[in-house]
Design a protein that fits this description.
It comes from Neurospora tetraspora. This protein has 204 residues and is α+β, with helices and mostly antiparallel strands. Helix content is 39%, strand content 23%.
Length: 204
């Protein structure tokens, strides 16, 4: 009798363990987060991490761009993943190619803690920080409620610029193009990423 009970108990225990073993665990696919250019910039800046190349970063973005988080809404773009709402997206006709953006990110990260000095431009209040292909990165000083250079001379590191472009790409990239503004230095300075051709037309 004891033998029969023991055998039955063992069979029941095996059945329970088998059932538990077949419980579906979260797959890598179901827990996979959308690709983040800002996180990629962080990886690039860390010597202990083998980061994706600019080309691989774009491929990773394209592989995840159809997710709910990456989906574009509205004709003028939308703030999709802004940290604390620090920025805005430009209309698509002001966008520059995304491959130019990842390339300039890599260049700024390589310069790391090197300083970029921002001062009033003779033609106005814009400072062009970098150009790659069709893409231009420039800075505005915003003080006193108006877009004008009312700030003292300022400096930012190249890494801060790279991080700003990365955040912009997270929120303002669609159809392999990017354009927008991102605040830095306690909302006193904002960086623009856009098509240099549009910039030339605006200044003409």
């Amino acid at each position: 009798m004891k033998h029969t009970f023991s055998a039955a108990f063992t069979a029941l225990l095996l059945l329970i363990l088998t059932a538990c073993g077949t419980t579906a665990a979260p797959t890598k696919e179901s827990t996979k987060k959308p690709f983040s250019f800002a996180s990629w910039v962080d990886d690039l800046s860390r010597p202990d991490i083998v980061a994706l190349t600019p080309e691989q970063a774009l491929e990773a973005y394209n592989a995840s761009r159809h997710s709910a988080v990456s989906k574009r809404e509205g004709a003028g773009g939308v703030s999709k993943r802004w940290p604390e709402g620090l920025g805005m997206c430009f209309p698509s006709d002001m966008h520059a190619p995304a491959d130019d953006a990842v390339a300039i990110i890599a260049l700024f990260v390589e310069k790391g803690q090197e300083k970029v000095t921002l001062r009033q431009d003779p033609s106005g209040f814009r400072n062009v920080i970098g150009v790659h292909g069709q893409l231009t990165v420039d800075a505005y000083c915003y003080r006193g409620g108006r877009n004008q250079w009312m700030c003292p001379e300022r400096t930012v590191t190249c890494l801060i610029v790279a991080q700003a472009v990365g955040h912009l790409m997270d929120s303002c990239t669609w159809d392999n193009s990017v354009g927008g503004s991102y605040w830095v230095l306690d909302r006193e300075l904002f960086l623009n990423v856009w098509d240099g051709a549009f910039l030339s037309v605006e200044n003409s």
